[in-house]
């Protein structure tokens, strides 16, 4: 009788150890999934930030082109005014 009881207790102990191991694996898996989710969120934020940066750079380039056109137009106007001033001085 005593041998049988010890066999059942050993089997019960093994089942208990297996349950603890399963619980531990579930805990590790949950931890890894959470960590992976956090990494995906960080990556997504970085990609969005990068695309926003590219958008801002494009806008800055367009603004520079517009400024350059305005400067060239102003330069042209100044040259014309200088010619008119010269003609007025001769008269």
Automatic annotation (TrEMBL):
<comment type="similarity">
    <text>Belongs to the BORCS7 family.</text>
</comment>
<dbReference type="GO" id="GO:0005765">
    <property type="term" value="C:lysosomal membrane"/>
</dbReference>
<dbReference type="GO" id="GO:0099078">
    <property type="term" value="C:BORC complex"/>
</dbReference>
<dbReference type="Pfam" id="PF16088">
    <property type="entry name" value="BORCS7"/>
</dbReference>
<keyword id="KW-0472">Membrane</keyword>
<keyword id="KW-0458">Lysosome</keyword>
<protein>
    <recommendedName>
        <fullName>BLOC-1-related complex subunit 7</fullName>
    </recommendedName>
</protein>
<dbReference type="InterPro" id="IPR032143">
    <property type="entry name" value="BORCS7"/>
</dbReference>
């Amino acid at each position: 009788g005593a041998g049988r009881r010890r066999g059942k207790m050993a089997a019960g102990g093994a089942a208990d150890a297996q349950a603890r191991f399963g619980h531990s694996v579930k805990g590790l898996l949950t931890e890894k999934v959470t960590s992976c989710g956090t990494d995906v969120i960080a990556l997504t934020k970085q990609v969005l930030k990068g695309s926003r940066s590219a958008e801002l750079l494009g806008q800055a380039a367009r603004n520079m082109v517009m400024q350059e056109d305005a400067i060239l137009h102003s330069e042209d106007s100044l040259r014309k005014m200088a010619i008119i001033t010269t003609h007025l001085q001769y008269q």
